[in-house]
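From the methods appendix. Each design record in this collection lists the discretized structure first, followed by the designed amino acid sequence. Records were kept in a plain field format so they could be parsed without special tools. The example shown here is representative of the layout used throughout.

RECORD:
C-ALPHA CELLS (150 positions):
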C-alpha cells in the first residue's frame, strides 16, 4: 500500500467513526493541509467510495431496541420467489437489512422493533404472510459488545 492509499484509508476510517468531523480536524489528524484533505474527500465521494453520511440513532429511544437476526429459508429457489421475497422485505419497515446468503438458508434479515410482542407481530403478520417462506429461525440479540456500523 503506498502512502496515498494509507492516507485515504485513514480518512475513511476517521469518517466512518465520525462523519461530522470537521475538515480542519480531519486534515490535522491525517497530516494534510485542509485543502488537500478536502480534495481527497470530495474525490472519494465522487468515485462513490463514500456513499453518504448518517446519524447514529439510539435504538431504545427510537422504539427499535429489540434486535433480531432472522434466517429465512424459501420453499422455492426460483428467481420469481426470490424477487417476491425481496420486494416484501423492501416494504417491511422493521427490516433494516436483508442479505441473500449462501448456506443452509437463503436470507438473513436484521429486524429492529420495540419489544418481543412487536417482533411476534412482525413474525406472524409480515414474514408469515410472504409466499414461499419455508423456514424462519430467529436469533434475538442480547448485547452488542462491538458494532462498527455507522
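DESIGN:
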Amino acid at each position: 500500500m503506498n502512502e496515498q492509499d494509507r492516507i485515504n484509508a485513514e480518512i475513511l476510517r476517521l469518517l466512518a467513526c465520525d462523519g461530522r468531523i470537521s475538515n480542519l480536524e480531519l486534515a490535522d489528524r491525517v497530516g494534510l493541509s485542509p485543502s488537500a484533505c478536502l480534495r481527497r474527500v470530495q474525490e472519494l465521494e465522487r468515485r462513490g467510495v463514500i456513499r453518504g453520511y448518517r446519524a447514529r440513532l439510539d435504538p431504545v429511544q427510537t422504539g427499535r431496541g429489540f434486535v433480531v437476526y432472522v434466517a429465512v429459508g424459501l420453499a422455492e429457489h426460483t428467481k420469481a420467489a426470490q424477487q417476491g421475497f425481496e420486494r416484501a422485505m423492501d416494504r417491511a419497515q422493521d427490516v433494516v437489512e436483508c442479505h441473500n446468503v449462501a448456506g443452509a438458508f437463503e436470507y438473513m434479515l436484521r429486524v429492529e422493533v420495540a419489544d418481543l410482542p412487536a417482533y411476534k407481530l412482525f413474525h406472524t403478520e409480515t414474514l408469515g404472510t410472504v409466499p414461499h417462506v419455508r423456514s424462519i429461525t430467529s436469533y434475538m440479540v442480547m448485547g452488542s459488545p462491538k458494532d462498527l456500523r455507522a
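APPENDIX NOTE: The beta strands are 66-74, 95-100, 107-113, 133-140.
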